[in-house]
Queue: 2 jobs
Job 1
Amino acid sequence: MSDSRPRAVCLVSGGMDSAVALAEASAKGFACIALSFDYGQRHRRELAAAERVARALGAIDHKVVVIDLRAVGGSSLTADIAVPKDRSHAAIGVGVPATYVPARNTIFLSIALGLAEVAGAQDVFIGVNALDYSGYPDCRPEFLRAFEALARVATVAGAERHEGFRIHAPLLEMSKADIVRRGRALDVDFALTHTCYDPVTRGAGTVACGRCDACQLRLKGFAEAGERDPVPYVVH
Amino acid sequence: MSDSRPRAVCLVSGGMDSAVALAEASAKGFACIALSFDYGQRHRRELAAAERVARALGAIDHKVVVIDLRAVGGSSLTADIAVPKDRSHAAIGVGVPATYVPARNTIFLSIALGLAEVAGAQDVFIGVNALDYSGYPDCRPEFLRAFEALARVATVAGAERHEGFRIHAPLLEMSKADIVRRGRALDVDFALTHTCYDPVTRGAGTVACGRCDACQLRLKGFAEAGERDPVPYVVH
């Protein structure tokens, strides 16, 4: 049985945002190729979550590209810098976070573009949202449009066959609470996702710290949506 | 003793083109950070050549980013596809070569951009040239300009401090013979460079095959420049 759906490459980190973006792509009728990165981050359990999310949401394939950005440095997600804890919600999202990986989305979208070309896909989905683009320059709408313009001239498909690549960011205008609600509507099982920057060992597994910026934003989103977060926390 | 020169990130593959581009950057007064990629290619000896070239040409640092593009596939340089041999010069450079790695330069420049941001550099040098852009879409001038536009909105430096990134491609209009001549003028030791896609074991080391597209183009460049290529070949 061949799959006549158009293909899309979907960036899947293992977190809740990209899970909802993947669910949006599936709901729009795309056959989704999930793409994750093993980029020397300290929390490789994200990759296990990405695999679970891709399978649960019916992706036709899941590719993991190994890229070691430690040689580039400059971020607490890849280098040995402390993860900020217990910051106020007012402080989170002001300025560029310590967890900023320079040019990360540019790098990830470039690899997605290469995979899209190989797979015959013209659509790429990324879960960036309003919260991200308050702090990360490479999450803003103007960045996404500039990347589409680049993609048109960077590839054989674009250059020879005049095909456009579309970068979809279906969560771009959404708050975390919006994302929780949209995920519920699309039957995303948030229990499969992993968000914490600094998980704590408990028994054979780990639980989310509840205190890093990522945990705080996630918990606030669930609270505002009037939902209970199904993942376990040390404190919250 | 501090180095007051502006910094530049220079993509150095180990081949002759990027060696000459690095020499150009140094000649222009930049303190150069060489950047190479270990991307699952079959010819890792390129990396040893890149290290020799970076050291010989006075780069202040040499970073190697590991990126495994085999999950992306689609090229004889990363996947298990035969390297073309003994093609006519007329056939080489027509259409997109089998050695095309989808979106490769987009990926490499994205990582260079991240490193430039961390290092406080606003200039990136890449050794693409006229021969490349007959076949590879991501070597053309319009691609390089689109990448500069992307870089302006993709980074903290560009977005907050309105700084431009410049992508320098000093060999863009040059033939291989021009590159040989320019390298000689800049005292580049071509014996340090490695070009062959399919080197042959001889004794403890390897020699260039002389028959793959890359060897043929290199040898033609030296012949047209009236120079002798200092690297050893099986046949030519």
Note: The first helix of chain A runs from residue 16 to 27.
Job 2
Amino acid sequence: MSDPARPDPVVHATAAIVSQGDEIVLGQTLDTNSRALAGRLMDLGIVPVEHVSLPDDEAAIAACFARLSSSVDLILCTGGLGPTADDLTRAALARAMGRPLVEDARSLERIRAWFAGRGREMPEINRVQAMLPEGAAAIDNDHGTAPGIAARLGRADVFCLPGPPAELRPMVERFVAPVLRPPAGRTVRTGVVHTIGLGESDLASRLKNSPRGDLMERTRMPLVGTTASGGVVSARVRYEGPEPAERAGAIVAGLVAHVRDLAGAYAFASEGAPHESLPAAVIEALRRRGETLVVAESCTAGLLGSMIGDVPGASVVFLGGVITYHNRLKVELAGVEAGVLEGSGGARPPGAVSGACAEAMASGARARCGAGWALSVTGIAGPGGAVEGKPVGTVYIGIAGPTGVIAGGVSSRRFAMGGDRRAVREWSARSALGMLWLALVGEPAARMLRQVDEVG
Amino acid sequence: MSDPARPDPVVHATAAIVSQGDEIVLGQTLDTNSRALAGRLMDLGIVPVEHVSLPDDEAAIAACFARLSSSVDLILCTGGLGPTADDLTRAALARAMGRPLVEDARSLERIRAWFAGRGREMPEINRVQAMLPEGAAAIDNDHGTAPGIAARLGRADVFCLPGPPAELRPMVERFVAPVLRPPAGRTVRTGVVHTIGLGESDLASRLKNSPRGDLMERTRMPLVGTTASGGVVSARVRYEGPEPAERAGAIVAGLVAHVRDLAGAYAFASEGAPHESLPAAVIEALRRRGETLVVAESCTAGLLGSMIGDVPGASVVFLGGVITYHNRLKVELAGVEAGVLEGSGGARPPGAVSGACAEAMASGARARCGAGWALSVTGIAGPGGAVEGKPVGTVYIGIAGPTGVIAGGVSSRRFAMGGDRRAVREWSARSALGMLWLALVGEPAARMLRQVDEVG
């Protein structure tokens, strides 16, 4: 792939990732390749600085290659290598390089052999997949017909790779990753701390007011940033510098531990970055204590149970529970007393959306299912259902557990969730898990984001 | 938002979508906003021509805005509007516009009110969210603290929007979509037919062998394509051409009706494109019949109930149900006879993953909850749990209903689901809804994708 007329090959300090295809740009398909490639580059110490998705437009792809080739050292492009008229990556790269497309005899032979291995003759349409810009090199595809392409363009090395993940992943591991050249003097290491119950600004001010100084200051190394998603607020730590890998890892680990301390009980995970989910953390904490969990869900209608059941091995602690969407089932399945839901003798009852109902649901589910812990959710997810004093987003979460941890064995909190129906339900389920997390780490009274004081 | 010095505002023929954040570019977070925005623009007749993701780098974001502003009519940017030092979209836009940041009094008041409504004082750090480039306009955020920004840059209108989907979605619908101006001379109309229980190749061959010819041929207008996601296979119809809106709409509607005929009982929705979900179709069919539904879930652990509860107004027909993850709760909550789960006298029991258990769960839940219909799911979601003759992905779905529709009042099917734990659970929940759909449209025996015949 190297051009003998050029001097020493570049070092790959920065990279751009290009994904190709109308279905991506027009919003019919979610591009997951770019994220996967970015993570892989970071592992290698190469920093992605831009992702671009482009439609099936040869001129647009060629212009993008040309632009990026003067600003980054490495371009990884996925898609557009198929045999049909809308597969334009080969032609676009040739145009950007100012070279003609030529047929690669070895690639043609491999494509023919791929079909022969499946008892078929190569359709003539697939012949185009053996075409390469003059001066480029083919990359073997062991899992499909489209060879990849390696080429030099401006200061950048360009790798064009097939879109299907099952072809892309092995090609990257076998032929691309081994020839990438991260800067020798630079190591990249990342870490993360996930929290529940803290607002992003709360976490940020803890980071700013650290005894070590303002951790989020943009000139510090490691860099610390915050992100928020569905109630989980995360601090992300990134080191990029000259330290050797082991030392860089220790620096990041030390800072992660410090950030975790700053977040206190609200931090539920800090290792293994994106895989440590809140339900997984709760399940692990219950497993260590040898305790079990059930749910009683009204407005979340099973979402909380589903989040828990999504974790492999959840069955060690999760027994199940009841979905009491209709008030009658709150009584029949969770044992809520009818008087909580309906007034008698003119008395105004607490109603289905109340702390009393959330507590009765949790206590009832815990007792009926014979579990150590129960979480309950009842609220108004919207768009309809608001009543005076209880707007859409009003949610009560109940928790029942050992009296040694939860005073009286049961308690509840009122929340004012924001967003649409989906957001209210997701925040509610995550906040319920957060309440349990705080109880399990010995801070059952720690105030939570979106918690509001009971009125009247 | 318009600049009085400029002539008539542009028409929005083309758009670019920018997403902002280290976590996206470095591969820690999957960007789903860009896809959603692209689909929404297509609905409106505006063609996205590029997606870009950039890191927290003010100069890079500003340069990207400047580049795009000379090539597209519309830029939608998400993220980077939070209160912390790594939220740089405001400053980048100001830099690209060559204007200073100024404080917007109304936005500041709204942010203060947002905190006050939650019983808190606005942290000083959030004050920066009221800053806007001079000449830009704030867009109200009804679901969070960050206002959006509308500005003119070069030939493009720029909208900077918050990253959290729960804030983004309502802001787009309420404030952005209404002010976009698709070109008048080009009409884009789309339609869709969603099916459950058919494979993508089954649907494609019905489309290819239509009495009207090969509907999927790429030179036809409207274009017809198929996509598959989690068990739902959809035929998408898209018209793009010079016909006036009404005529284009009629062309698409006529073709959609024809495709729906080709798909037969498997088609569950065809109007209103992405909003007609399978649970919504099932709920509507039950509502028309005046019947109710409950669930009994083992491996899905609440996911089926959650999908149903996700539909606004589900409470008209959905009562709730039981999550019987642990075998003991299958007996205690759903009334499954212990003999189904445990052998006695040396007999080998059907076990928890069996048609007998699925049927007992459905019958038991229907009777105990007093519902017209019950759906049950029990299976092996993996990665562990496989037993001889029942590999990971083995799932039994039960349905109990009126004996006039379901012979004997209850039945079950065995499925072999593919993919990982999440995929098995999602396919299971959707297949359960599909079984109910087929029963409700009078085809309770129609064979379904991934259904397998019981062995032994």
Note: Confidence is low (pLDDT under 50) at residues 1-8 of chain B.
